[in-house]
Design brief:
heterodimer; A: mainly alpha; two-stranded antiparallel ribbon; 16 helices; 6 strands; B: 266 residues; 2 domains; six-stranded mixed sheet
Chain lengths: 385, 266
């Protein structure tokens, strides 16, 4: 690791990796035949394995973090470029926007689970609180953009009901409380007719400054599918949330979360208030998940209890574990894999949980830190002590 | 015994029971300011329990702790920390997955600016504090080992055992405590490493001036060399207290360690 700090790496490896990754993403999104997809996936998995085997992955990451500001901008532009390729393809844009929803939600969950160590299996319930808030409050009276923070706020408030029991318990016991909450949440939605029961609720479409998000539009001679609007809004939200979470990680706040996760016995002896930091992590994480939920609902246009079941919580947790606990780029990578894979590979749709189980087991066995493990904290961009 | 004006910590009739087990039995202790105080005793004699009750990890069954005119009986670990008491743990409890610097900063928690504004929005104050803290951490590490200071941003999991102990002691020292509790820092070290560590400690103590240390230790040579006074515990009771030379002469102590001559009386 000392190398990491002392040698200034060239920007080239990260640019090449970015181009390769984006080309791969565009290709996966483009290809339709099952055999081609399987070939691409196998190729991708093998190249990633080889690249990490020969330390190429860590080299790219070092190069990226040495030129972080430039690379962040380039990555953002590259993602927009890939979406521009599919400007007419509603299905692909919808899929990419869904990936962003999961990225945002997992960034929230990451504050709780990845940093503060609070295993939360109620992630989907918090998504649901945000979604139902948007559905119930979105009646034309409120500017739809305000539904996003309101969804976050609702998730924070309802989530804080869980805090007293979670602070009294530790580890798995506290996780069981969240499982119970998620199960109760979906059951409640199914039986309570005020919220549409199993049928669910329609959600207003997003509009901003009289611009309706649910309408296709023209850019010169290009026809833009309306899901591009949602994708772009989701992309802006992702950038904001990612910046906040990254700043949290690289600050004394992130360090305090780490102290809480790593040692609940010794940390209080240095003045770390475990309950306070857990509450902060849990509430801010739920805010972000609720925000993602409200956005998801506005994009879907219709929500039902099945969108927010316990198995969706499992997907959120899976993304975090596969990506690497506390690793922001890990979340981005695995969210893309976990969402896009079953959509492209129709054959595994029904078996996806079986597949996730196998993949999580394999990753934990052979790459316990996750696909892109978290790197030691760098407090300042380009910080070289 | 030091005069009352100089007493930093006084423990009165301190008792701790775990169910039927009496871990501490009406322990009376007075520790003077700037003293280097040793605690010895066979395994299970209540030394670590004494630290754990003093630092608020376990509540006391009865008795009281008065520290620098404050009542710290059953105070929370955070209150104890704010009062200026810091400690290390018997089984070294450093955070292996974090860098040395991060570990030290956890020890420095109470003096870090944890506000939302400076941490998330306008970070220039944070950057300034990070630089300042890095300098402080480097200076402290340098006292123990200059090479360790050079490796400040490496993960603790890559450091050898002796350095982990040093890091743990530095983590306890960086917040500038006035009472330092060391729980068997020598465990798992060679004689030479231990001598080095003790020299470093004496050096730091002399430099800080107003620092009192309570040391739990099995190694008699260390107690002899560094402590001003020491107490011997057995089955939660204090069986003897005084300078090292007076303690080793005591027949109760000899009995506790070597067993009694006339079979087992207990």
């Amino acid at each position: 690791m000392s190398r990491f700090f002392h040698r200034k790496l060239s920007v080239l490896p990260s640019i090449i990796a970015l181009v390769v990754a984006m080309a791969y993403l565009a290709l996966i999104l483009h290809v339709e035949t099952q055999s081609m997809i399987i070939a691409l996936l196998t190729g991708g998995a093998i190249s990633f394995f080889l690249a990490s085997r020969f330390d190429l992955v860590s080299m790219v990451r070092q190069s990226y973090s040495a030129h972080e500001r430039v690379m962040d901008i380039l990555t953002a532009l590259a993602v927009v470029a890939v979406s521009a390729v599919y400007h007419e393809n509603s299905f692909v844009l919808f899929m990419m926007a869904t990936v962003l929803v999961y990225v945002i939600a997992c960034l929230g969950l990451n504050l709780q689970f990845g940093y503060a160590g609070m295993l939360n299996f109620a992630g989907a319930a918090m998504l649901g609180v945000g979604g139902y808030t948007a559905a119930l409050l979105g009646n034309g009276q409120i500017q739809t953009i305000f539904l996003l923070p309101l969804g976050g706020l609702a998730a924070t408030i309802i989530g804080s009901i869980l805090l007293p029991p979670m602070l009294r318990t530790h580890g798995h016991y506290s996780a069981v409380i969240t499982i119970a909450f998620n199960l109760l949440f979906t059951t409640f939605l199914e039986v309570y007719s005020g919220f549409g029961g199993t049928q669910g609720l329609p959600v207003v479409s997003m509009s901003l400054f009289n611009f309706n998000f649910n309408e296709d539009w023209q850019l010169g001679s290009f026809q833009i599918a309306f899901y591009a609007n949602y994708f772009l809004l989701g992309f802006v939200l992702t950038i904001i949330v990612m910046t906040v979470v990254r700043r949290i990680e690289r600050s004394w706040i992130g360090l305090s979360f780490d102290a809480v996760r790593l040692d609940e016995i010794s940390s209080p002896c240095f003045g770390v208030d475990i309950a306070l930091w857990k509450a902060i992590a849990f509430m801010s994480g739920n805010f972000i998940i609720g925000l993602a939920g409200a956005f998801y609902a506005l994009m879907l246009g219709y929500i039902a209890p099945t969108n927010f079941s316990f198995s969706d919580s499992l997907i959120l947790v899976t993304i975090i574990i596969l990506g690497g606990l506390g690793s922001i780029w890990g979340i981005v990578l695995t969210a893309a894999i976990v969402i896009i894979l079953p959509e492209k590979l129709q054959a595994i749709q029904e078996y996806r949980f079986l597949l996730y189980a196998v993949v999580v087991t394999l990753v934990l066995l052979f790459r316990p830190g996750g696909l892109l493990p978290r790197v030691p904290r760098i407090y300042l961009p380009g910080w070289r002590p | 015994m030091t005069s009352t004006a100089q007493v930093l910590l006084s423990c009165r009739q301190v008792s701790k029971r775990f169910g039927g087990v009496v871990a501490l039995d009406h322990l009376d202790l007075e520790i003077g300011r700037r003293e280097f105080f040793g605690m010895i005793g066979p395994n299970g004699s209540g030394k670590t329990t004494f630290f754990n009750t003093l630092t608020g990890i376990f509540p006391l069954t009865s008795g009281s702790f008065i520290y620098d005119n404050q009542d710290l009986t059953n105070a929370s670990p955070q209150q104890v920390c704010r009062a200026g008491i810091s400690r290390t743990f018997q089984r070294s409890r450093v955070c292996l997955g974090l860098s040395i610097f991060d570990n030290l900063m956890i020890g420095n928690h109470i003096s870090l600016d944890r506000g939302i504004w400076s941490n998330l929005i306008n970070r220039s104050a944070l950057y300034h504090q990070i630089d300042e803290m890095a300098e402080r951490a480097r200076l402290l590490l340098k006292t123990f080992d200059p090479k360790l200071a050079g490796r400040m941003y490496e993960l603790v999991s890559n450091q050898p055992m002796i350095d982990r102990r040093r890091i743990e002691i530095c983590r306890a020292l960086i917040s500038g405590p006035r009472l330092l509790l060391l729980d068997e820092p020598s465990a798992g070290m060679t004689d030479r490493e231990m001598r080095e560590l003790m020299n470093n400690l004496l050096e730091v103590k002399a430099r800080i001036g107003d620092l009192t240390i309570i040391l739990i230790e099995h190694e008699m040579k260390i107690i002899e060399r560094v402590t001003d006074r020491c107490a011997v515990l057995n089955f939660g009771r204090k069986i003897c207290e005084g300078t090292y030379s007076s303690v080793v002469e005591n027949s109760d102590v000899q009995e506790a360690y070597l067993g009694s001559k006339n079979a087992r009386r207990r």
